[in-house]
Specification:
β1, α4 and β2 form a beta-alpha-beta unit. Strands 3-2-1-4-5-7-6 form a seven-stranded mixed β-sheet, with helices on both faces. The protein is built from ten helices and seven strands. By secondary structure, the chain is of the alpha/beta class. α3 packs parallel to α4. Helices cover 45% and strands 20% of the residues.
């Protein structure tokens, strides 16, 4: 894993340093969903997309495979998941077997920056809360579009700023109007938008699990205490941002025929 990929991987999982990467499987061992809600993505597909036999999806940055396994088990989607973390891919394979969809799910360890250069003609491409691993949001949209067949779909999990009255294109997150402009410039259409449902109990439970695992690591690796404390604080800040300052959203996009 090159230095840039490692840093972006860490950032996508709410860390400020790539030094945390070897500890991520332990810190996140209690969570199956890593950022994206499988239920939200499943609902969008059910409402807006006709999933016919042989429907194929590419899940970039698939994490532990929660979205792919849900789509395979509920809709019969053939899923190819790609993630750079070996431990995550191992869990994804175990979950696919547990849900009886190993014949529909293929999970591969690999760099999604490389995968998106060669993967083509999918009915659906999923990019679930993977941050800027593929570049700016404009670059992400272009890269995802290249992997989708004409008429195919993209599920993109991200967020937007609720106040779009001032400072257009400023800040880390675009306003919704800016998102619409980016999508249009990419030559895609916005089919539907699902704002993330508030899940305070789930968020607090997940945060408690991460904090407990971090405390355990502090006992074993006291020399890294500051790093683990920062990770826990970053998690707290992310949950607070999504609850108070940002709107989490899943965009369902379509490539023209």
């Amino acid at each position: 894993m090159d230095k840039d990929t490692a840093q972006k991987l860490a950032q996508s999982l709410t860390a400020d340093s790539a030094d945390i990467i070897p500890f991520l499987p332990y810190l996140l061992q209690d969570l199956w969903e890593l950022g994206s809600s499988a239920a939200e993505m499943l609902a969008l597909l059910r409402q807006h997309v006709t999933v016919s036999p042989g429907f194929a999806a590419l899940d970039l940055g698939c994490g532990k495979g929660a979205v792919s396994v849900a789509l395979a088990s509920q809709l019969g989607v053939r899923c190819r998941g790609n993630d750079i973390m070996d431990d995550f891919i191992c869990t994804a394979k175990q979950k696919a077997a547990e849900y009886g969809v190993s014949h529909l799910c293929e999970f591969i360890v690999g760099d999604i920056k490389k995968a998106v250069l060669t993967e083509r003609d999918y009915d659906l491409v999923i990019y679930g809360a993977a941050g800027d691993v593929l570049g700016t949001r404009a670059q992400i949209l272009h890269a995802l579009k290249s992997a989708v067949r004409p008429g195919g779909y993209i599920l993109l999990d991200d967020a937007y700023r609720p106040d779009d009255a001032e400072n257009p294109l400023s800040g880390e997150y675009p306003a919704l109007a800016e998102w619409r402009a980016l999508i249009e410039r990419a030559g895609l259409s916005l089919v539907a938008l699902s704002e993330a449902a508030e899940r305070p109990e789930d968020d607090e439970r997940n945060f408690a699990c991460i904090r407990r695992r971090a405390q355990e690591l502090m006992q074993t690796y006291p020399q890294h205490r500051d790093m683990f404390e920062r990770y826990v604080q970053n998690q707290r800040d992310e949950y607070d941002d999504l609850a108070e300052r940002l709107v989490g959203a899943v965009f369902l996009l379509q490539k023209p025929e």
